[in-house]
Amino acid sequence: MKNEQHTRVITWERTDLCFQSSSVLKWSAFALQLEFKCGSETIHLDGFWSGDCNWTARFAPTHPGIWTWVSHSQDSAMDNHQGKIECIAPNTKQKKANKNLHGFIRIPKDEIHFQYADGEPFFFLGDTLWAINTLRCGLGEKENGNFFSWLKDRKQKGFTAACVQFFRRLNQSNEGGYPFPNNTDDNGIFTHLNSEFFKHLDTRMNHIWDAGFVVAAHPTWFGKAQGGMTNISSLDAQLITRYLLARYGSYNLIYSLSGEYQHSYLDMPNPWTRSDWQKLGAMVNKWNVYNHPVSIMPTGIQEGKSSLSSEANSGSSAGEFHQEAWLDHNWIQTGHRLSLMHLIPKTIKENRNHLPLKPVIQSEGWYEGFEDTNLFVQCNDSHIRWQAWVSYLCGAVGYIYGHGDVWGYFSKLDDPNPKDISTEKKEMLDRGLNAEGGISLSYLRQLFDQIAWWKLKPRQDLISTKGLLSQEANEWYLRVPYCAAAPGELYVVYYPLGTGKKRKDLLLKSGYEYSARWFNPRDGSFENIKMPRLDKNGKWDVPVTPGALDWVLVVENNHELKNLNI
């Protein structure tokens, strides 16, 4: 028995316990397990290989108290170590400085939003950076690399989630080299894991944590072609997943089994089956010891002839996996064209009609700056506002933004040297970070910080707009308002471009006194509206919008106005 030094930490913050094996063991041996106990709670963790004879157990206490721990290993040098960790609760100031100290993300019972472990609602506004763990998205010599430029910018703009993959391509390195040095050409060999590669991912994850971001993560795109047919077995995917959850499970995660999982059906010499994903999900259920929310990211709907089943070609994780015990929320992808934007309200509604009811994330729509080559039009800030506002008001718990220039700058398939980037390419990154659509999302966040958004539910039945060509968005017509409400308390209606001068009715719950404001989603300003005068049925003839572009109507019960800066 080997007694270790007593340590002291804050609830939810990680601590690393380090061990040395008597000889070098395979990374996939998972030769170390630890058992942590405090009161009635017990947590069993895998240790992970961290180079040579080094093994690490990364632990995050879930509540205050004295946690005792003991190690288990077939290697006598790591077996039966024991110790204590004293855990104290974070104070109010610490929680305000870092939202992650409210605890890991949960899905409350009988609800369809995310919240922190202490009950604080979590507003999911994500930004896409799939290549976060590459040289192009580097750390720099003095924390001055592109990674920090991106993180600082997105925090300032009010994003709350970093949407990443732990390694992007086998032939893309970070400061520590390649993830699997003997497999940079997709040869199917994963025997040699590079711990130095993942140490630099640790650094990125630590800074993301310190910034208060939740991490929505895939391990990688299992099955997606990298210049040819890809080659990874479902067993290797399980081992890699187990390693990543051992190493990063003590961060605040929303976990996806893979990006665009259907590629494993189409782009592999030995294609996976639905059963392979079901098995991987079941194993994640076992290794996900902190009960992080789990889903899987789909491809968008393939139009025309598709070799996929209708369930796999639904644009949603629900198509094949909604009834799986390991899947507790759904991801949808609607695609990168103007003519596909109408699928956002349609697919969200379809997913909310599945039983049991599970939260929905709009994980990928039309990225700002991407061109729709069918119509020769580029996605701009008005398209981004439409996608984001409609997603939330139709009942999505999260919206993930992306910009084509940020994606294009970071997501190269080769292994770029960040020191050899042309001025034009550097300007591309700046252009992407400062795009109007991303800026307008900061105003969306500001409004939602002031209202009890988690009480809102889609209520299209409460609005009526005369003179529209359609009451539902379709491939050719998006000028439809969308409403979410907590009747009697709060109503939010998004009026897109072209609906402002149409006659608009809103049905309010009678018996209350309301105040109403127009919110400008382009600059974050408000304009007050004269007190609503309702008819005997509670119907209000909403005035015209202050201008021709898109506007948001906010109606609140005067007796329950709150300023909730969450």
TrEMBL record:
Q: Which InterPro entries match?
A: Apiosidase-like_cat_dom, Collagen-bd_put, DUF5060, Ig-like_fold
**Domain Putative collagen-binding positions:** 481-556
Domain Apiosidase-like catalytic as annotated: residue spans? 111-455
List each copy of the DUF5060 domain by range: 11-73
- Pfam families given in the database record: Apiosidase, Collagen_bind_2, DUF5060
Top-level lineage group: Bacteria
**What is the originating organism of this protein?**
OM182 bacterium
Gene3D superfamilies found in the cross-reference section: Glycosidases (3.20.20.80), Immunoglobulins (2.60.40.10)
What name does this protein carry? DUF4038 domain-containing protein
